[in-house]
Predict the structure.
Amino acid sequence: MDTKYYLAVNNKQEGPYNLQQLRDMNLDANTLVWYDGLDEWKKLSNLPILSSQLTKTETPPPFDEEKYIIENNTVVPMPTQEVNPFGYINKKAKPNNYLAEAIFSLLFCCPIALIAVYKSLQVNKLYNKGLHDEAKHAAKQARNFALLAVAAGFIIPIISILLS
């Protein structure tokens, strides 16, 4: 069932109107509105749900590039940080980026170690963008590639000695 809205215009009650009819009108924030469920007449600006459905914006709000990130070629809002009742920001713990281990692994098997270094550098970038799960995944990959480079650095010489 559609809600019926009434307006107070020039000290006279008008209506009932449905939501689509209100959208077609040029209402301002000071227009008085009443519908079933309200105790008294209220300004449209004091009814945020209704106001957001009826107000028209001719110009978009200013674009703040720091509030958005690009994911899969789509602009999406930056994840908001939750604040607990004590005023502290609830952030997931920053994962270890394993950069030292990745650099150390360069001594053993450079091609695989370069992947480890690249992944470890991604961790901080992803975490700072609020992409905590992706940062954790990149940290795990950095660790795995660093371990693989060290293992390859020991195994490859042993295999070459055995085969010669």
Remarks:
- The helical segments are 19-24, 48-54, 99-105, 110-128, 132-163.
- The beta strands are 5-9, 12-17, 32-35, 42-43, 68-71, 74-77, 82-83, 89-90.
- The radius of gyration is 30 Å.
